[in-house]
Structure prediction request, 261 residues.
Amino acid sequence: MNDDRRVRTLGWLLIGGSLLINEPLIELVLVPDGEIEDPMLSAVVLGFACLGVAVGVYVLRRRPAWHLPGAAECALAAASLVLTLVFAESAARFWLRFVASESAQERYTLIHDIDGEELRYSRHHYLNYYTTPDFEKGDTRHNSLGFRGEEIAIPKPPNTFRIATLGGSTTYNYGVEDDDHTYPGRLEHHLREMGYRGVEVINAGVGGYNSFESLINLQFRVLDVEPDLVIVYQNTNDVHTRFVDPAFYRGDNFGRRRPWS
Prediction:
C-alpha cells in the first residue's frame, strides 16, 4: 500500500472512529451507572469527537506527504502498547493488594473484586442500599440488623429508653473508626454518665442518605426496634437532591438517586 493510500485510509479511520466516540457509547462501555452526569465530561467527549472528524477531513482534503508505518511497524507498536498496558495493570493490582492503605483499597478496588461480606453497604429492596449486617472492619462493626454498634434486644427490655438516630454519613460517622466515638456513641456515653442507665442510642445512619431514604429507613427498619425518641440529622444531603437538571427533579428524588448496580 503506497503512502497516499495509507493517508486516505487514515483520514477515513479518523472520521469513522471519531463518529463512534459518542456519549451513548462511552456511557455503555465506561460509565458504571450508564449515564454521564458531569456536563464538563460530556463537553470533553464531544470535543474529542469533533477534533477527530476535523483532522480526518483535513487529511482527506490536503493529503499531507506523511510517511506512515507499514504493517510490521504497526504490529510492533501495537504489541508494545499491549505489553505496556499489561505491565501497568499488573503493577496497579500488586500495589492495590499488597502496598496500598486500607482507605486506598476501599476507594479504588472494583466492587466485583471485593467479597460481599467485606462491603460496608449492600443492596436493599426498598432503600436501594443499606449498611451490611454483621460487617466488621477494625473497630467498626454492624449488628445483625445492619445498624452500627452492638446487638439490640428485641423486644425492647423493660425500663429501657431507646433513642434512634437517623441521617447520612454525619450520623453514621464515616471516617470515625471506633463505634464509641461516633456522635450516637458519645450521646449514649454522656447520658449514662449523667445517670440515665437505661438509655440506648442506636446508630441508624447510612452514608449518602437524605430525608427520602431516612423516612423509608424509619418505616421499614427503625420502627421495628421500638424507639422512644428519634433524632434526625441530615447535614447537607438534602441539598444534594436538587443538584440535578430542573427538568428531571421529581418529588420522589428520581432525578438524583439511581438504582443500585
Observations:
- The first helix runs from residue 3 to 20.
- The chain has a mean pLDDT of 83.
